[in-house]
Design a protein that fits this description.
One of its GO terms (biological process) is phototransduction. It is a multi-pass membrane protein. InterPro entries: GPCR_opsins, GPCR_Rhodpsn, GPCR_Rhodpsn_7TM, Opsin, Retinal_BS. It comes from Gadus morhua (Atlantic cod). Helices cover about 70% and strands about 0% of the residues. With about 325 residues, it is mostly helical. The protein has a single domain, classed as Rhodopsin 7-helix transmembrane proteins (Rhopdopsin 7-helix transmembrane proteins). The protein has a two-stranded antiparallel ribbon with strand order 1-2.
Length: about 325
């Protein structure tokens, strides 16, 4: 059983690498604080992502090809919040902190990783969809439901394909941070596990980020060229370009805030296995990564006019606190 050691004797009887996951000097107050922080992220995440799924099922107008990836992201984030966030809240707050058994560790690590990487890949899929629709690199490409379905299926298959190997011996799932959650083992010096982690980081973190930068970079360049061509400086086209640029910067910053600390910590541990990182410090990037389940629906969905006009009244029992503004351009509507 993998568990957080609570005494020197327990630490000596734990597996050789278990001491890095628990800190007997951490008080119950620290764990309760971590539980409260996780609750502040998990509760609104569950509400917002569930709202996206419910309003999509209730309103046919939202079931459009360009919205399928947004709904898929909400489903993945909802799964991550249920399997990782709720467990983190309960386990940190549970008196005495019962041990997280090996089976529970593997199941939790696998589930959270599958949902998390699916959500991350869907963010890249959304960027590519917007680029194809606005920039038309393939000419008059008509984005249909079948294209959206293929993209969603690929995001799940890609995530499953890179999270299944630890179940069959290439890599493994182990406790991380203060020992209240599990993830792919970044600390192992075994060559097989290190090779898995390097592939995982490159193909599940670096590649989606590269796709996001390339897609949004192309989109911004196209909008800038259109704005110059129509010579509407200060007009509708320029305002649309500025708004899209702000949204792109916000999306990239949120992506980096959620995932860069986690991926960076993993790379540091892989390349310097002897580095000492406090369990509490190591937990912070984990919580930042899990916070993406909250800001994803805020950035990608509740800033989307079409979703917002249905989601806000649903959350406020039919009340709409503000009047939606008209879109300043067709391009802006497509990007949103």
């Amino acid at each position: 059983i993998l568990q957080r050691p609570t005494s020197p004797a327990a630490m000596r009887s734990s597996p050789p690498n278990a001491s890095r996951f628990g800190d007997p000097q951490l008080t119950d107050g620290v764990y309760l604080t971590l539980s409260a922080i996780m609750a502040l992220v998990t509760a609104p995440s569950l509400v917002l992502n569930a709202t996206v799924v419910i309003v999509t099922l209730r309103h046919k107008k939202l079931r459009q090809p360009l919205n399928i990836a947004l709904v898929n992201m909400a489903v993945a984030d909802l799964g991550a919040a249920l399997t990782g966030g709720v467990l983190g809240v309960v386990y940190n707050a549970w008196p005495g902190h019962p041990p997280l058994g090996r089976t529970a560790c593997v199941v939790e690590g696998f589930a959270v990783s599958v949902f998390g990487i699916t959500s991350l890949c869907t963010v890249a899929l959304i960027a590519m969809e917007r680029m194809f629709v606005v920039c038309k690199p393939l000419g008059q490409f008509n984005f249909q439901m079948k294209h959206a379905a293929v993209g969603v299926a690929l995001s799940w298959l890609w995530s499953l394909g890179w999270n299944l190997p630890p179940l069959f011996g290439w890599g493994r799932y182990e406790l991380e941070g203060v020992g209240t959650s599990c993830a792919p083992d970044w600390h192992s010096r075994d060559p097989s596990t290190v090779s898995y982690i390097l592939c995982y980081l490159c193909l599940c973190f670096a590649m989606p980020f590269a796709l996001i930068l390339a897609s949004y970079g192309k989109l911004l360049w196209t909008l800038h060229q259109v704005s110059r061509k129509v010579c509407l400086e200060g007009g509708a086209s320029a305002r649309a370009e500025a708004k899209v640029a702000r949204m792109v910067v916000l999306m990239v910053v949120c992506f980096l805030t959620g995932w860069l600390p986690y991926a960076g910590m993993a790379m540091v541990v892989v390349y310097s296995p002897d580095v000492h990182i406090s369990p509490l410090v190591a937990t912070l990037p984990v919580y930042l990564a899990k916070s993406s389940t909250l800001f994803n629906p805020l950035v990608y969905i509740f800033l989307n006019k079409q979703f917002r006009q249905y989601a806000v009244p649903f959350l406020l029992c039919g009340r709409q606190p503000w009047v939606e503004e008209e879109d300043v351009s067709e391009t802006q509507t497509m990007v949103e």
